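Worked example 3 (structure in, sequence out).
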């Protein structure tokens, strides 16, 4: 074997060694696992997105219901107050209490 043939044989061996055991091999493996991790993350995000959207809609709906309920309760409270005042005025009128010119 001539020296140039031996060099080429060594070069071929060296190239395969670098590809498998050299610094490029772990980098390639790292990129593969990074892509796998990225893919898994994307899948999780696609799965969680509808749940997140549903939770946001539920929160928004709860806020709207809270505001509606607060308005309803306030209105009911005002009606109760008005009814109580009317009842009190009716009782006063019936008993003749609180009139500006009391009957004698």
């Amino acid at each position: 074997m001539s020296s140039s043939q031996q060099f080429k044989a060594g070069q071929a061996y060296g190239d395969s060694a670098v590809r498998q055991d050299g610094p490029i091999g772990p980098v390639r493996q790292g990129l593969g696992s990074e892509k796998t991790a990225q893919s898994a993350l994307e899948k999780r995000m696609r799965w969680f997105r509808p749940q997140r959207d549903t939770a946001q809609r539920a929160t928004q709906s709860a806020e709207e219901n809270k505001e509606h309920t607060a308005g309803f309760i306030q209105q009911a409270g005002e009606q109760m107050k008005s009814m109580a005042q009317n009842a009190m005025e009716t009782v006063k009128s019936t008993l003749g209490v609180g009139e500006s010119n009391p009957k004698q």
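Notes: Residues 17-22 have pLDDT under 50 and may be disordered. Residues 24-95 form the longest helix (72 residues).
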